[in-house]
Specification:
single chain, alpha+beta, 25 strands, 49% helix
Length: 800
């Protein structure tokens, strides 16, 4: 029995090769996309779940509301955690993490050589209780007790321990940080897992940082996004109970203006990977809205593939009608026929699933992981959840795609089937039209979303940032001492093709945020206090980056703070016009000096945030970046010359640089990849939809073969017949557009609301989406319609 069934199955597949291949190909595409979406969502959801105290760990963040706008941040003053532990009731532990974005590690070898390693973003300062709060297994040595209460001690992950000390124990060895601080290795830890937002490898005791920069631990007004605190709550204590105590805490440590605008909140470690309000140490978040979109897109594509299968199978019903008639005459029951056709669908789905599994296994390491930036494991044998998903997909798709065609084919009347004149009721044809409508509904949603995303990305790249983006490169300085800066200054002026250069803390656009309290004075008394971004810059910053001066003058050449330049938003905070602000006195970091200039507002970060107050001033001690404006014709020669100067000053460090426009593009990597993903999935959905549309056209052509023949005999032209066919599908596409547009507009408009600066969804986007769908439908139906219209009527009418 089984052998006979398999033989019949194989013959059917061979007899209908084109339709079988189309069905397999469509299902393979849909299942592959769905499987990839499932694996990505599964991996994203697993982030940070391995910590034993997961349910009780929360991050301290703050929300500032100024002028009706909400600003969020995860950074805190370094002095704050100790006071939180002492004054807030219900907290078991508070641990401070201070992340260093860059560090040079030097290791002395037995032969007297010194090896140097640049580490980014491995380096972090932690308090002793870090390992009580977070789960990080120790392989050798210890991080418990008072080990990390001492200065100049460090714990390394196994990867870095093996890198620095190959073939020997790292515990007890010494490494040197930034050629100035010796650190004794006290422990070797497990490497961070792939699903971790804590990509650390070098854990230095916080006491080391306190000894190096004691003043930073006394400032309540200074906030850096690199300094983050986590709390471990007592059992049965809710985050709301802790948040209720923050107003009194703020009242004690901040002034009236800050108390009125700032609110401290707790964000669960379970949401750390998804919370868009606060950044992560991995510099990557996966918004829950994005994961939901992945799930929806995966479901849409697999449903589209099933719809395609249904349309293609029912299109074959005329061709297989006689087979059904013969089986029924020979005693075959409808139940046995349904099971037979479901079995065929199961076999095709199983083959498509196996192909999808093989394709996914190849795509993940080659394309997907690089595209989304995380490792996505795929091992169905070891992970039951993946195996369960594959089995559920196999059964669901087999039933969803196969049940309706099986019922249609098994319900055929034998006499009509054997005569070759199968009839289908209007309800069945309506259902198949609805399926095509549904497919193009999905296509319209994806096309609309793709067009909006691409236009927003183009807006990001073309918007006026308030400074020049072209042919300006930034170099992170390894040595920042006066001797090194003076050498750069003297050498760089002799390079042909250099228009200007500037030493500064950060360029105008930067991912590193430094903010502090500013006091605005009138008649020697402070009349205003608010938070401002600070940028330390030299006298050539304006010229190098192309900022626009509105009033006054730019900073002079000075090593210390003796004057300030502010932006327009800064003045809005105090209600002053640019000309009125000149010579007004302000104070930052206990340095009081006059405002000497006002620059036009410029974007210091991404366009999803409003422009914030910025104060710029000289402070040579904090210069860590070199900006160089070059001529396009000499760019490559200038880079080579800068590289030579770099190695004169920094033998141990690698030379790295980045152009401003390249930096901006990288900051919109998520949006760029999202638009690419939408484009790919829209193309796949359209392709599968076209297969389904082709199936319906084929079905209607077979059903109306005699009608077409009669029309041709009565004088109907080929254009007339093709037009009648195409018009019906254009109407379906139009209806799909009318239904899809409100949903697509609502979803994409909500997405655009995440950006302070964005495009508006205008008529052009609607026109592009509709025209694209109509053209696709016309091309898809055109070939099959033309073939039906040019068939010799003798062939279709010879039985009459």
């Amino acid at each position: 029995m089984l052998k006979n069934y398999l033989k019949t199955l194989f013959r059917n597949f061979v007899r209908n090769k084109v339709f079988t291949l189309i069905n397999i190909f469509g299902l393979t595409l849909g299942i592959t996309c769905s499987l990839i979406m499932f694996l990505i969502v599964k991996q994203e959801v697993s982030f940070n779940r391995y910590h034993a105290n997961l349910d009780h760990i929360y991050r301290i963040g703050h929300i500032d509301i100024e002028n009706g706008r909400e600003y969020t941040g995860g950074g805190i003053p370094l002095v704050m955690p100790a006071s939180v532990k002492e004054e807030i009731v219900g907290i078991k532990e508070v641990t401070l993490i201070s992340h260093e974005r860059y560090g040079l590690i030097s290791v002395n070898r037995a032969n007297g050589d010194v090896s140097h390693y640049e580490e980014d973003p491995e380096l972090v300062y932690v308090e002793p209780n870090f390992f009580d709060v977070f789960t990080w297994p120790t392989l050798e040595g210890t991080v418990g007790g008072n080990t990390l209460e001492q200065p100049n001690v460090v714990a390394l992950t196994k990867k870095l321990a093996d890198k620095y000390f190959p073939g020997q124990s790292a515990v007890g060895q010494t490494i040197r940080l930034d050629k100035s601080t010796d650190l004794k290795v006290v422990a070797v830890l497990e490497d961070a897992p792939a699903n971790s937002d804590f990509p650390f490898g070098i854990f230095i005791s916080m006491e080391t940082k306190k000894r190096r920069n004691p003043n930073e631990f006394n400032r309540w007004g200074s906030i850096s996004s690199d300094n983050v605190a986590f709390v471990l709550l007592e059992d049965h204590v809710s985050p709301e109970q802790i948040e209720a105590q923050f107003p009194d805490f703020t009242e004690k440590h901040w002034n009236k203006e800050t108390r009125e605008t700032r609110t401290f909140v707790l964000s669960s470690l379970k949401d750390y990977h998804f919370d868009e309000r606060f950044n992560t140490f991995s510099q990557r978040t996966a918004p829950k809205s994005m994961l939901i979109a992945y799930v929806i897109i995966g479901a849409f594509l697999i449903v589209t593939a099933c719809v395609n299968f249904i349309n293609m199978s029912t299109a074959m019903s005329v061709k297989r009608g006689k087979e059904v008639g013969v089986r029924k005459v020979l005693g075959g029951s409808r139940k046995s026929l349904v099971l037979r056709f479901l079995g065929e669908t199961f076999a095709i789905t199983l083959l498509a699933l196996l192909l999808s599994t093989a394709i996914t296994e190849r795509l993940l390491p080659l394309v997907i992981e690089d595209f989304i930036g995380i490792e996505v494991p795929f091992n169905p044998i070891k992970e039951p959840i993946i195996l369960g998903y594959l089995l559920a997909t196999l059964l669901t798709v087999s039933l969803l795609a196969g049940l309706y065609p099986a019922l249609v084919l098994s319900g055929t009347r034998p006499i009509l089937a054997l005569k070759g004149s199968m009839s289908h009721n209007k309800g069945g044809l309506f259902f198949r039209r609805f399926l095509v409508f549904f497919q193009f509904l999905i296509c319209q949603l994806l096309i609309f979303g793709t067009v909006v995303a691409l236009m927003q990305i183009n807006f990001f790249m073309s918007v006026d940032m308030g400074y020049d983006k072209e042919w300006i490169l930034n170099i992170g300085l390894a040595r920042k001492d006066k001797q090194a800066l003076d050498l750069w200054d003297s050498e760089i002026q002799n390079i042909p093709g250099v228009k200007s250069h500037s030493f500064n803390f950060t360029p105008p656009f930067s991912g590193s945020v430094s903010a502090t309290d500013v006091y605005v004075y009138a008649n020697d008394s402070a009349v205003d206090r608010f938070t401002t971004h600070v940028k330390m810059a030299d006298d050539r910053y304006l010229e190098t980056y192309g900022l626009k001066l509105l009033a006054g003058k730019w900073l002079n050449d000075s090593d210390t703070v003796n004057q300030f330049v502010v932006n327009e938003t800064f003045l809005k905070e105090v209600g002053l016009e640019p000309e009125e602000a000149i010579f007004k006195t302000i104070e930052i970091w206990d340095k009081r000096a006059p405002i000497v200039g006002v620059v036009k507002d410029y974007h210091t970060g991404r366009l999803d945030s409003a422009i914030e107050p910025v104060a710029m001033f000289n402070d040579r001690r904090n210069y860590r970046n070199l900006g160089v404006r070059v001529t396009a014709a000499n760019a490559s020669d200038v880079v080579n010359s800068l590289k030579n100067i770099w190695y004169q000053i920094n033998e141990e460090y690698e030379f790295n640089y980045r152009y401003v426009d390249q930096h901006i593009v990288e900051y919109y990597e998520f949006e760029r990849k999202m638009s690419q993903m939408l484009t790919v999935f829209a193309f796949i959905a359209i392709f599968i939809g076209c297969l389904g549309l082709y199936g319906l056209v084929s079905f209607m052509a077979n059903q109306k073969a005699k009608e077409i023949g009669i029309r041709k005999v009565l004088g109907a032209s080929v254009q007339h017949i093709v037009g009648r066919f195409s018009l019906e599908f254009v109407v379906l596409v139009g209806l799909a557009f009318l239904v899809a547009t409100p949903f697509a507009y609502w979803f994409m408009n909500n997405w655009l609301q995440n950006y302070e600066y964005s495009i508006s969804i205008g008529p052009l986007i609607f026109v592009v989406s509709l025209v694209t769908s109509v053209v696709i439908a016309m091309v898809t139906t055109g070939y099959r319609s033309l073939r039906a219209a040019t068939t010799n009527p003798v062939q279709s009418l010879r039985d009459e």
